[in-house]
């Protein structure tokens, strides 16, 4: 863990095991409790044109976001062969879907036939969507260990297609040490979609538009935020998804009072943004030309953050999902 003073820009090499000691009594630590779903499905194209032939043509579907009870946005391969109206079959027919729309970047909207427990079937047929740099011996496999390890220890609400990676550092023991220091721990839910990690494709910051992601601000967390703000205590976010949720909710609260609610956000934070609620941030190291690095630069100051990144590269800090972390305060 690299610690960075976002006022002076000074950094210090440390380790995450010392993170609890960097927190103060009265701090409010906010975590994203979204749980990764086995969003990769392998299926077949149903018989073309309704002629009744056996289903053919293996396809891969990557569910990216649930848009309604039975409808999901998804990436499909091979995409050029999958047209609107196409029927898709998964497993031995346990899941059936129809392609009902096509998106701007080639994504599809699927409408699944209702089943008694969709997520139970998905748990059986689906695969954890590991990042492509995590390789397994078999192309289509993920392991039981992946299903456990590619989750935060406090994940609860199913819906993400990628882990909120800053949270992967926490263990029950670390959380216990944090609470023992008089730090309050609260939760939001933001279901992480692929749009969070997509590279910037445009020349101007003004032209960047993120995909929407669903979130929930629980009543207990809203109360904790209001109390922390009233008492002048720090609000610390674990991860950029938590930052985006809190700052979006702050924008919806012109009077400065948080209220429990659910909704969707596509807030984009870049240098020049004025933070309303988050005062310290734990985050992993992000790739160049990403909106995540823009958010961190907005929080820590572009020059300070890029200097810290140069040090991290020189000292062989690890990037990506299972990489090292940085604490900006």
Describe the overall structure.
It is a single chain. The two termini are 13 Å apart. Residues 49-53 and 204-209 have low confidence and may be disordered. It contains 7 helices and 17 strands. Helices cover 22% and strands 27% of the residues. The chain has 329 residues and is an alpha/beta fold. The strands form 3 sheets. It has a 9-stranded mixed sheet. Strands 5-6-7-10-9-8 form a 6-stranded antiparallel β-barrel. Helix 6 crosses helix 7 (302-314). The radius of gyration is 21 Å and the shape is globular.
Radius of gyration: 21 Å
How are the strands of the largest sheet arranged?
Answer: 2-1-17-16-14-3-12-13-15
Point out poorly predicted stretches. Answer: 49-53, 204-209
Q: Any idea what the shape is?
A: globular
List the quaternary state of the chains: single chain
> DSSP helix count?
7
Structural class estimated from helices and strands: alpha/beta
Termini separation? 13 Å
Helix content: 10-25%
Q: Tell me, rounded to a whole number, the average pLDDT.
A: 89
| Beta strand count | 17
Q: What is the H-and-E element order?
A: EEEEEEEEEEHHEHEEHEHEEHHE
Beta-strand share of residues: 25-35%
Main sheet properties: 9 strands, mixed
């Amino acid at each position: 863990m690299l610690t960075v003073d976002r006022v002076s820009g000074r950094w210090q090499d440390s380790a995450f095991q010392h993170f609890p000691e960097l927190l103060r009594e009265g701090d409010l630590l906010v975590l994203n409790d979204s749980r990764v779903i086995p969003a990769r499905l392998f299926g077949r194209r149903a018989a073309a044109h309704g002629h009744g032939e056996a289903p053919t043509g293996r396809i891969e579907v990557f569910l990216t976001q649930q848009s309604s009870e039975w409808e999901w946005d998804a990436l499909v391969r091979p995409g050029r062969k999958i047209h609107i109206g196409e029927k898709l079959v998964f497993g031995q027919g346990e899941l059936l879907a129809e392609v009902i729309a096509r998106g701007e970047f080639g994504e599809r909207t699927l409408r699944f036939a209702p089943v008694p427990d969709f997520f139970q079937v998905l748990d059986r047929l689906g695969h954890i969507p590991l990042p492509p740099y995590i390789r397994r011996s078999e192309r289509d496999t993920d392991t039981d260990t992946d299903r456990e390890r590619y989750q935060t220890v406090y994940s609860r609400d199913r819906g993400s297609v990628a882990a909120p990676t800053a949270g992967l550092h926490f263990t029950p023991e670390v959380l216990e040490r944090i609470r023992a220091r008089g730090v309050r721990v609260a939760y939001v839910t933001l279901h992480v979609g692929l749009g969070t990690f997509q590279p910037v494709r445009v020349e101007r910051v003004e032209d960047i538009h993120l995909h929407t992601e669903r979130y929930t601000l629980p009543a207990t967390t809203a109360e904790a935020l209001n109390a922390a703000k009233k008492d002048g205590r720090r609000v610390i976010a674990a991860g950029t998804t938590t930052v985006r949720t809190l700052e979006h909710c702050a924008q919806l609260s012109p009077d400065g009072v948080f209220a429990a609610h659910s909704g969707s956000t596509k807030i984009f934070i870049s240098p020049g943004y004025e933070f309303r609620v988050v005062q310290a941030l734990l985050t992993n190291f992000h790739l160049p030309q990403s909106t995540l690095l823009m958010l961190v630069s907005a929080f820590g100051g572009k020059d300070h953050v890029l200097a810290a990144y140069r040090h991290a590269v020189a000292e062989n800090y690890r990037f990506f999902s299972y990489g090292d972390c940085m604490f900006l305060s």
